[in-house]
Specification:
The complex is a heterodimer of chains A (about 140) and B (about 150).
Chain A (H helix, E strand, L loop, with lengths): L2 H18 L11 E2 L7 H10 L4 E3 L6 E8 L2 E10 L2 E11 L10 H31 L1
Antiparallel strand pairs in A: 1-5, 2-3, 3-4, 4-5
Chain B lengths: L1 H15 L18 H8 L2 E2 L5 H13 L7 E5 L3 E8 L2 E9 L3 E9 L7 E3 L3 E4 L4 H17 L2
Antiparallel strand pairs in B: 1-5, 2-3, 3-4, 4-5, 6-7
Helix pairs in contact in B: 2-4, 3-4
The chains are: A alpha+beta (about 140), B alpha+beta (about 150).
Chain lengths: ~140, ~150
């Protein structure tokens, strides 16, 4: 195969991949792009966390915040990492607490659902800030 | 090799500059949903203004005022705003592409049940879960309403 044909084939493959591929979507690990819209990150997180009873806790790393939830005999800690104007969630720990007998099995899905809701709460607050920021630019 | 470089550059440029374009539904695509469902999501919306700041505002305001449930802001890639819809354990993600003339919703990704089975023209989804064609038209209608109100 000539160089020209090879180049064309590679280009067509690349183009077809780009035109049909879709992004991988994860339940809560995809980054949120904050841009220049968030002036008071603590305030935004506190409002978002209050929707479902999450607490904002500090972390030694200044780029990291901790969301803590004690619910249905589980203590859940989620790291909220803010770096390069992107916000990303990751689960730090899930502990069972205070069950007299073995804790009722909630399944992975319940805990995952709570963290999806946490991410969505942050995203709703961010959307409001973006909307207000865009309005002020008009 | 020089030719390869030029072709690759053209391809990359083309992908990076994805823009809204008038929708012409290809009715010959096999196993596609009906054209009216595709149009309800992906039909281009005339902006009615060339002011990009106003257009961006109308898009995000439209996301927030969508009937039923807010679409959340995920980021702005310069020419498109990414929006997401989390509901009952499922997710739909779209890119809302815009320029001075048109706004158009493109499929970006989805959780397992909402992965697009047939994507054409870099984001026009010809086959997906029924609910994709139920929830996403509300977003399109809301953005159209906000653009009209500018």
């Amino acid at each position: 195969m000539t160089t020209g044909k090879t180049a064309l084939l590679v280009s067509v493959l690349f183009l077809s991949a780009g035109s049909t591929a879709s992004a991988d979507i994860t339940p809560y690990s995809d980054p949120l792009q904050l841009g220049d819209y968030v002036q008071d990150l603590n305030g935004m997180l506190e409002r978002a966390f209050s929707y479902d009873g999450w607490q904002l806790r500090s972390h030694p790393d200044p780029d990291t915040y901790v969301a803590f939830l004690s619910y249905k005999e589980r203590d859940i800690s989620v790291h909220v990492l803010v770096r390069d104007q992107n916000l990303t969630l990751s689960v730090e720990s899930v502990f069972e607490t205070g069950c007299a007998a073995p804790c009722k099995d909630l399944g992975e899905e319940s805990v995952s659902k709570w963290i999806v809701n946490l991410r969505r709460s942050i995203a709703v607050e961010l959307t409001t800030l973006v909307r207000d920021g865009l309005q002020s630019q008009m | 090799m020089k030719r390869f470089g030029i072709i690759a550059l053209l391809v990359c440029t083309g992908l990076a500059m994805a823009e809204p374009a008038p929708l012409v539904v290809d009715k010959k695509v096999r196993k596609s949903v009906r054209a009216k469902h595709i149009e309800a999501v992906h039909l281009e919306i005339p902006t009615g203004t060339t002011d990009l700041a106003k257009i961006r505002y109308a898009i995000v305001q439209g996301m927030m005022l969508t009937k039923g449930r807010v679409w959340t802001y995920e980021g702005d890639d310069g020419g498109s705003i990414r929006a997401r819809f989390d509901y009952r354990g499922h997710t739909i993600a779209v890119r809302i592409e815009y320029n001075e003339e048109l706004v158009q919703i493109k499929f970006h990704g989805g959780s397992e049940a909402y992965e697009c089975k047939i994507i054409i023209d870099d984001g026009i989804c010809y086959r997906n879960h029924d609910n994709y064609y139920k929830y996403t038209p509300n977003l399109r209608a809301s953005i159209a309403q906000q653009l009209e109100a500018l």
